[in-house]
Every structure is written in C-alpha cells, then in structure tokens.
Amino acid sequence: MTKTLVFKFGGASVKDSSAIKNLSEILRNRLRKNMIIVVSAMGKTTNALESILAEKLSLKDYSVNSTKIKDFHFSICSELFPEAHPIFAQLQNLFSQLEQELLSPLSQENYDEYYDRIVSYGELISSRIVSEYLCAQELIVVWKDAREVICTDSDFRFAKINWEKTKLTCQKSWKPILENFPILTQGFIGKDAKGRTTTLGREGSDFTAAILGTSLEAGSVTIWKDVPGVLNADPKLFPNTSKFDELGYKEAAEMTYFGASVIHPKTIKPLANAGIPLFVKSFLDPEASGTKIHESAASHEIPAIVLKKDQILISLKVTDFTFIEEKHIHRIYEQLQALKLRVNMLQLSAISVSIVIDAHLFKLDQLLSRLQSEFEIRYNEGLELLTILKQKSEEIPSLLQGYEVLLEQSTRNTFQAVRRKVETKDI
Hints:
Elements: E1 5-9, H1 17-28, E2 35-39, H2 45-57, H3 63-80, H4 87-102, H5 111-119, H6 121-136, E3 142-143, H7 163-178, E4 183-186, E5 189-191, E6 197-199, H8 205-215, E7 220-225, E8 246-248, H9 249-257, H10 268-274, E9 278-282, E10 291-294, E11 304-318, H11 326-338, E12 343-348, E13 352-358, H12 363-371, E14 375-389, H13 396-400, E15 403-410, E16 414-421
Parallel strand pairs: 1-2, 1-7, 2-4, 3-4, 7-9, 8-10
Antiparallel strand pairs: 5-6, 9-10, 11-13, 11-14, 12-13, 14-16, 15-16
C-alpha cells in the first residue's frame, strides 16, 4: 500500500486569494489519496486574535478588530467564490460561534484555556475556505477537524500529545478515509480528555504535520514556506544567506531549539524517531529541491545564525550574600515551569543567576512576584538574543557592531549574546 504523504501550508501560503490559488496549483499535479494537507490560519490572523484577547483582558472595546478579522476573510471568499456559494453561510456560522465565545468572562486565571478556544478559530476558518476552494477546482478533499484525532493533556497553550491515543485514533478514524480520499485539516489545535480545545504552542502547525505523519507512518512530511528551504539565517534580517540542501535531524533540532523559525522546535523529534524524512520547500518555487532533513545527511561547516527578538534578561541575586546553590536554581526553574516559561539562555555567577526568556503577556510580573521574596531581581526588556552555531570567531564582531552586549557566552560550537541597539544621536 502507498505510504501517506503529509503537506503543511503555513499562514503566508494562505494569506490571500492569490496565495490560495497558488496552493491549489501546487496540489493540482500532486494531490492523491493517502495525503493529508495541514493548513494554518490565514496571514496574521493568530496575531489579530491575540490582540483581541489583550483588549478584552484590559476591558477595552475589541469590536473594531473583531470586525476587521471577519471582513478580511469574507473579502478573500468574495474573490474566490460566487455569491451563492455555501462557504459564506459556513463562515457566518463560525464567526457567530466566535462572537458568542468572546462574550464569556476572561481573566488572568482562565487566560490560557480561553486563549485556546478563541485562537483556534483562525485554523478552523482558513481550513474551511481552502477545502471549499479546492473542491470547487475539482481537487476533491475531505475536511476533517484535527481535534478528532490530536489527543492532548490539559496544559492549555502548550498541550502535550497523548501519543498512544493519537496514533490509535488516527489509524482507526482517518486511515480508512485516506484509502479513498485526501484529507484537509488544521494545524496547531487538539483536544483534551474532556473534549476541550487545546493548542500546541505558537507556530505549532509544523508539529501537527509531524504528529499526523508519525501516527500514520507516513513516507514523508513536507512543509511549504516562503523561503527556498532551510537557510543558515533569516534572509529578512541577514544578507548573503546560504541554503542547506540537506541537514541531519540533530542539527535541524539544534537550530530549532535556539529559535530558528523555519520549523517548529517539536517537529523534528517524532520524525527522527520514526525515520521519516522532512522536506522544506518553497510555495513560490514548488519545483525547486528545497531542503531534505534526514538521518544520513552529509556534514558541513556552514555557521547558522539565529536571532530571537522580544527577549527579557532577568538577573536574580541571592539576598543574603550566600553562594548560588542547586536549591536556588531549582526554585527558579520551578516557578518558570509553573508559568510555562522556557529559558533561552542561562548564566551563573557566584551569587547570581541570569536567564533570558521570551516576552509573554503579564508573565513577567507573575514571575517577579513569585521570586522577589527570595532574590534581588533586575531585568531588561526589549532585547535580542543572537545565537551562532558552528561560529567562526572572526565573523562575530560584525554581528555585534552597533549593539550593546549585556550578556554573552561561548562553547566549542555555540556563541550567544544578548544585545540591544545602541541609540545614535543626530549631531
């Protein structure tokens, strides 16, 4: 029997009517049974929904932004479908459900669960539109709700997969359909044991593709991006980037761990364990080779540069001048874990611990309040974390020129620096 193929299309590949038409052309000669197509929310819809949540939490009027999201999607549909097409009624129903959800109370205490319920609508809406358009182009797909098979715990916003249950459900529910038709579904979302919507972490659609690929013993997973493949740096931030024709699982995992945005960090592990190759290809140039990530990739010495923005540097000093001990580090990590905050960089001195974390709404205040009785705390916001893998020492100064370095460290294979732009005054 032919092995299942998984294609994942991100927000940029479904950002407007032209992008959706391009997606259909990519699938025209590739679509077949035993294929799963995973789609993300359209364009910046997730960001827009997050903005609505921030406004609601601040007791501000979010109706203008809510209307913008609705108009955005209906405008795309008006360019893709005739007026009488059923998609308009489907969309109206989904937006009515969303508006009803937004009427329920929101607080810091229930924010994560509320977030998952609201933000999931981005994927549900986009997948309906793409599915209907493909069928209108005689590219027949079966729309399925990913929450039927992606089974998770109740760790809202960062849900962990129940692998055994997910694999069993995929094999039982979706495999029989795939023997006759391709399936189109959503990335990023799942459900817990009580049937509540969960999400897998920001940009988690890549992970969904890997989960489905692993659960259905796929032949390969392909992520379609707006870049030619995996590059050694973000071309929007750094000039003269190089494309990797192939990468080993371990190297790709290391790049994602440090923040390379081309692939979600959790994507590599299940595919590597199952020996399923991952392809990263361009939806702008679908015939190009892209990058293949697999076990037997040839080694190389090309440095990889990763830049994470919106970083916070927190320094925690023991108040009684004793030295930092394991119990202090344990206490800090205990609170970080409780708040679902990940450390991007750690540095120890005799009497202090310095950590670098991503900025998250109201999480910094919560962390400070939990630790301020035990530590003297200082922090800086709005920073950047620069990481260079397989660094060449002679190239580092140019990457720090024009920046103040607040913290740096180097190992045999990795250089990291926390930096902020030096403000230049006009004379």
